[in-house]
Amino acid sequence: MRIDHVLKLVLMTAAAMLSANASAAPLQGVARAAGEVPALTEKVWCRYGPCYDNGAGVGGLVGGLIAGAIAAGAATAAAQQEAAAAQQHATSCAQRYRSYDPASNTYAAKDGRRYPCQ
């Protein structure tokens, strides 16, 4: 690509960006009634109608982070309880059966077969 084509492309892009209409600009020319108190915020028109910035995006983000932290804490607590129950089960089976194998959760019976520990 030649340098003059690159320069032309850059200039056209800059011109397009500078000439774009401000679709989110506040309405300035609205006549107010004599006794009306001006609002602290201006109504802003977006692409398809009035836009309102009520902080919902930030609130949603914060709420999502809090909910994620609560869910992660609950999952961790559930995993700890499950591990404790498994350890207690293995200890109980080891006390009942001398031939208990914790890797397979089975014990050897007198008939030579292995059965799962209940």
Automatic annotation (TrEMBL):
Tell me where in or outside the cell this protein is found.
Membrane
Q: Which domain of life is it from?
A: Bacteria
Q: Example GO molecular function term? A: carbohydrate binding
GO annotation, cellular component aspect: membrane
Signal peptide start and end residues: 1-24
**Which keywords has UniProt assigned to this entry?**
Cell membrane, Lectin, Membrane, Signal
Membrane topology classification: Single-pass membrane protein
Q: What is its main location?
A: membrane
Question: What function is annotated for this protein?
Answer: Has immunoglobulin-binding and hemagglutination properties, and can bind to mannose. Essential for virulence. May be involved in LPS biosynthesis or polysaccharide transport.
The family this protein is said to belong to: Belongs to the BA14k family.
- Full protein name: Lectin-like protein BA14k
Organism name: Bradyrhizobium stylosanthis
